[in-house]
Amino acid sequence: MKLCVERPGKDKLLGHNRSGLKGAWKINHPNISSGVYYARSPQYAGASLGTTCKPSQSKNVVVDPARRGW
Is the pTM of this model over 0.85? Predict the structure, then answer.
């Protein structure tokens, strides 16, 4: 999984991690600022499990810490 924030031009990669067997994942980033964020997962073929995961992208999430009192 890759966590990205939209920027003019090329989007910025904030971090990456692998999902667990149940699909859960977590990326800690200490300074989340206002912006539009999304997660992206590349295609993955697990030879040991005999599975292939299709690439996907989450819906955009708008974050505004000033409005939430963070």
Answer: no
